[in-house]
Amino acid sequence: MRDGGGLVGFHSATDTFHHWPAYLALIGAEFSHHPRPSTQRVIVEDRHTPATAALPASFQIHDEFYVFTHAPRPHVRVLARLDTGPSGPDRPLVWCRRAGKGRVFYDALGHFDTTWSDTRQLAIVAGALDWASGVVAGGDC
Question: CA dist 139 to 75, 103, 128, 132, Å?
């Protein structure tokens, strides 16, 4: 990673390697739990990356919405978050970060088969792979 590799993780990529601190630091967060699956609104905070450029400002999706043991925002560039209302907790769902010369991308969506046929999720996936592989530039991320 430090020399220019790429890592793209989806959904349960934060619910693995719990005893490997270097991996958890690399991916940006560790899964804690999730409420019952539901249909919620996702707010796209940053539409200036290949993974989010084609997304609307917000969208509804049915999924399992993860809660993490620590807030990832201080260590990553948050691209999309769960809408928890004006006084609700910060719940990042999609982010990216640099690791040396490498690129790390994570998307917490993806529990259900229907998510993987959703055009918005497919746009995130395609853009994430392009960015993490270095095929497309993606700003500071």
Answer: 16, 11, 13, 12
